Amino acid sequence: MPRRTNTKDKEPTPPSRAQDQPAADSPEPIEVVHLEFGEFPQVNRLNPRFVPRRERLKLTLDVHPPGDPALAAPPALIEPLSSLLPGLHRHRCGENGRISETTLRRARKGEPAGEQSADVAHLLEHIIIDFQHEIAAMKICSGVTCGYERPRNRYDVFIESPGQRVSRLCITMACELMNGLLKGQHPDPLYVRIVRLARRIYRNGSAPIAAGHGDGDSQTAAALRVLRELNFVEEMDASINFSRVPLYCLIEDNGNLKS
Ligand SMILES: [Zn+2]
Questions:
Q1: How far is the centre of ligand 1, averaged over its atoms, from the C-alpha of 46 (Å)?
Q2: Which of these, 80, 158, 178, 197, has the minimum number of CB atoms within 10 Å of its CB?
């Protein structure tokens, strides 16, 4: 789960902080190596659905250890992922296939470790797309995942971006979600709350959010904390807010509050 601070609010046990968490020095199954934004015209031909000159993110990641038998196999992740993100079933993949078909397609024949890590990177691509689509109401969002020759467990994921702030949030959530699933954790429904709240704030620029102590409120409070910690929203200055409900604003890509 994305980082959460401890509070007295009632909320589900953060799955990524459970006792089965590996030691701090063991690498996460997915590690982000680098992130940048640009047009990257060199990948235009790799996906005919790419919109020319649209800004894309380029996420370089290592998937390790490839083929670790302690990790869940990617095909086993599709069902829990789809229950959390039902939109995944509607994704078109490759030649109009579905993600469940193409994820199982062997990218590197005869090399199980490479196949598994390629599937992990490819699933991550689709989760980022799904999150971005939900938050920013993108009509279409396309991507492609490319494997390196060396190191063999490194990938570049290119995805059309609706804006850097949204993309960074979605990348962080997608990596946390995938790392938890690969380690055998159940998907936390809080992700859906976070996405819904992010969508509401993104589409309106700001939103009054009452996060008190009721059951629903504590879920909202947990989602809001994640969005604040990940620098997606900030509370608006109280001097210009006449209601008692705190107003939260999207932080724009240039660091300003959206008003
Ligand atoms: Zn795909």
A1: 12
A2: 80
Torsion, CA 132, CA 135, CA 139, CA 143, rounded to 10: 0
Q: Which of 1-5, 15-19, 147-151 has the highest mean pLDDT?
A: 147-151
The CATH code of the domain that includes 207 is 1.10.10
Distance 29 CA to ligand 1 centre (A): 20
CA of 244 from ligand 1 middle (Å) equals: 45
Using DSSP's 3-state secondary structure scheme, residue 249 falls into: strand
State pLDDT tens for residues 139-172: 899 999 999 999 989 999 999 999 999 999 999 9
- By residue range, what is the domain housing residue 93? 27-188
Domain membership of residue 259 (yes or no) is: no
Stated pTM of the model? 0.84
Last residue of a domain, one of 156, 188, 220: 188
Residue 11 belongs to a domain: no
pLDDT on residue 244: 73
Name residues with Cβ closer than 5 Å to ligand 1, which is an ion. Answer: 93
* 118 plus 169 within the same structural domain: yes
Asked whether residue 69 falls in the same domain as residue 143, the answer is yes
Phi and psi, residue 222, nearest 5°: -65, -45
Query: For residue 241, which amino acid is it?
Result: N
Q: How far is the CA of 102 from the centre of ligand 1 (A)?
A: 6
Q: Distance from the CA of 120 to the center of ligand 1, in angstroms?
A: 11
Residue 135 exposed, middle or buried by CB count within 10 Å (0-12, 13-18, 19+):
buried
